């Protein structure tokens, strides 16, 4: 199953950095169609030791969640060819041919989003000075 990195979810949920939230909003539409480069290079995820850990772990975790549900028979093995740009959840339906694929992708989405939240909070702590300056700029505006 396709599982785009869900950086935009975690930034909208937990980030206090104004810049990160702006990039997240800009990258939301491409991310819907599994185009993650604006967030990967704009946040940045690339060469960022904080986000590197969840970035590397999210894909295998999503894979093994889907594999688990395939092994227990909840979803059938994927046999349909679906373009990679089909949005998450809709692609789950098209890959499996039933609503169970959507459920599995939703579970993957939730788990991988929860994986990122502690790292976003660490990023907030490390950038507390920048966040405080952003809040002062807002108050002065």
UniProtKB/TrEMBL annotation:
Residues 1-119 form the PTS EIIC type-3 domain. GO terms for molecular function: protein-N(PI)-phosphohistidine-sugar phosphotransferase activity. It is a multi-pass membrane protein. One of its GO terms (cellular component) is plasma membrane. Keywords: Cell membrane, Membrane, Sugar transport, Transmembrane, Transmembrane helix, Transport. It is found in: Cell membrane. The chain crosses the membrane at residues 61-79, 99-120. GO terms for biological process: carbohydrate derivative transport; phosphoenolpyruvate-dependent sugar phosphotransferase system. It comes from the Bacteria. InterPro entries: PTS_EIIC (IPR003352), PTS_EIIC_3 (IPR004501), PTS_Sugar-EIIC/EIIB (IPR051088). Pfam families: PTS_EIIC (PF02378). PANTHER family: PTHR33989, PTS SYSTEM N,N'-DIACETYLCHITOBIOSE-SPECIFIC EIIC COMPONENT. This is PTS transporter subunit EIIC.
């Amino acid at each position: 199953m396709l599982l785009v990195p869900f950086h935009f979810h975690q930034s909208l949920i937990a980030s206090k950095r104004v810049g990160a939230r702006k990039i997240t909003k800009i990258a939301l539409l491409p991310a819907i169609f599994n185009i993650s480069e604006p967030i990967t290079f704009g946040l940045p995820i690339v060469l960022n030791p904080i986000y590197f850990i969840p970035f590397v772990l999210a894909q295998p975790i999503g894979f093994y969640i889907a594999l688990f549900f395939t092994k227990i028979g909840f979803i059938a093995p994927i046999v349909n060819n679906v373009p990679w740009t089909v949005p998450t959840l809709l692609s789950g339906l098209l890959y499996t041919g039933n609503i169970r694929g959507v459920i599995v992708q939703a579970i993957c989405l939730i788990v991988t989003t929860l994986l990122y939240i502690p790292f976003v909070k660490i990023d907030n702590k490390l950038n507390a000075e920048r966040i405080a300056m952003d809040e002062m700029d807002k108050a002065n505006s």
